Amino acid sequence: MATIARHSRNSADIALSSMPPHRHTHSDGPVAVSEDAPNEGPNTFNSPSGSPFRRESREAASLSNVANLEDVPPDGGYGWVCTFCVFMINANTWGVNSAYGVFLDRYMTWESFRDATKFEYAMIGGLSISQALLISPLTALLQKRIGTRLTMLLGAVVVFAGLFSASVASRIWHLFLSFAFCFGWGMGLIYIPAMNLLSPWFSSHRSLAVGFATSGAGLGGLAYSLIAGRLIEVSGIAWTWRILSFTSLAANAVCALLLRERPPSVSSSTAGRANRYSFSPRDFLRIQVFLILCWGFVTEFGYVALWYSLPSYATSIGLNPSQGALVQALLSLGLGFGRPVVGYYSDRVGRINMALCMTLLCGVLCLTVWIPARSYVGLLVFAATAGVVSGTFWSTVNPILAEVVGIAEAGSTYGAICFALVLPTTFGEAIALQLAKGEGMHQFLPSQIFVGSMFLVGSVFLWCLRSWKIFEIERKAEDEQRSVLTDMETAGTAAMREVRSSRWLTPKRLFMPRRV
């Protein structure tokens, strides 16, 4: 009996010593034996070498602890309610903003503001987007001070104020203050927090949820472009602005009240609060963040220029304003239906893979379909196809950030990237209109080449990001294989990792067929 007891204790010591640190008991001493157990003596105490039932129970408890530590998202539930709310917020911020292309065409055709230049009209559209991104640091500060819900409600009120005050604009600088700045600030206050709330609710369906939510910008743009075009003809520009202001206020306020942050698990709540609103500018030096920033920076030049130039291009080839508004609406329709499709397949073929293919395809379409489009039908075909792929950055950047920097840092990194995109969103449309020189069908040719080139360059940065991600997957697999090492071996591995880190961009990884 003594021999058996010693053998059991030795087995327990060996088993416990081989367990990972988080599986150890809280005591470093010998395993405690329950005195209340009726049939447990020295020979049958609860050890890894005990009964299969006890061993399975202990493994199940350990897996549960690991799940709690990793904070696995519910992948649905109330997250779908949040998805619909973010969809509506996109429709009533970005969708309303898309309708400015219709207003822009009317302002330029009717010469509504005396001495206003084409450059000034273009700057208003670009500033409305850039101000929404520029305000992201203030948005993060307000979230920390007054909470996410109050921040979004404040944004809904500011959006209303900007749209309503645009209805009484009598000079061009009035439109700058009302739509470009006030509306832009309100859009940033409600849109950025709403998008950051979504990713933590999902894991395997994250891209699908984000794709559906961001499709609100396209479908909202479709609805508001058609509504604005018709209302301008029936009620005039002033009342059109007022109607848009009240509809957006009602929708945004209700959605802000329904949106809910997913509470983190107990084990991750402290880290989550610490990382949620923190971002250091030095993080832009991380290769994965830098590549995503470059991808967004160049493609936003093309995206903003394409979005606001299409109605003006339609007029330049002889179409009437109503046809130009329909072209803009079809671009929004393609965006609305394309983003959920892109999100759905991103979860299956890889988020970086899908973003790369769509960005590349958009550049090709601009150069091969838009340039030859000299008829109404040809322009409608381009608008429908370009709408599907042109907004890929906004529909995939959140899931991609969650993969490359982690969910805890994704929100703050997204806000920092938005802040860095102020320059292209401000000047993208202005550059495109300045490039459009002369008159006739070919005046937009330099702008078309500019837009297509921006998307092609953006796809190159995504190609490099794909290579980095494959390298990171391989590195983690190697580290897992070497998880049990002595201190000397660990130091050697760190030195080897330093050498390998400079080899993430190789022809083999660039062309490797892999789901990333």
Indicate the multimeric state.
single chain
Assign the structural class, choosing from mainly alpha, mainly beta, alpha/beta, alpha+beta, or little secondary structure: mainly alpha
Distance between the termini: 58 Å
- Under CATH, the topology is which? Growth Hormone, Chain: A
Poorly predicted tracts of residues: 1-70, 266-277, 494-500
* Main sheet specs: none
Strand fraction: under 5%
Tertiary shape: globular
Provide the CATH architecture: Up-down Bundle
> Tell me, what is the CATH class?
Mainly Alpha
Explain what this protein looks like in three dimensions.
The protein starts with a helix and ends in a 6-residue tail after the last helix. Residues 1-70, 266-277 and 494-500 have low confidence and may be disordered. The protein is mostly helical and 516 residues long. It has one domain (78-261, 276-468): MFS general substrate transporter like domains (Growth Hormone, Chain: A, Up-down Bundle), CATH 1.20.1250. It has 22 helices and no strands. Residues 41-50 have a biased composition (Polar residues).
Task: Name the features.
single chain, 516 residues, mainly alpha, Growth Hormone, Chain: A, 22 helices
Short recap of the structure:
It contains 22 helices and no strands.
